[in-house]
Amino acid sequence: MTQESEKKQRGLTLLIESLxxxxxxxxxxxxxxxxxxxxxFYRQEIIDHCHQKLKELQNE
Length: 60
Hints:
Blueprint: H1 3-20, H2 24-32, H3 36-58
């Protein structure tokens, strides 16, 4: 694995971690704007995409 691949993996892993951390202020705004479920749906879509990309990077 190249140094560039390792850096990409670390960056993607940190992004995934940040998506898993609850942001109560943002979620409260989504709840107040009646789009909480949509926010959570897109959050999961992004998490799934990031995990797929991470697998691709690991197979390089």
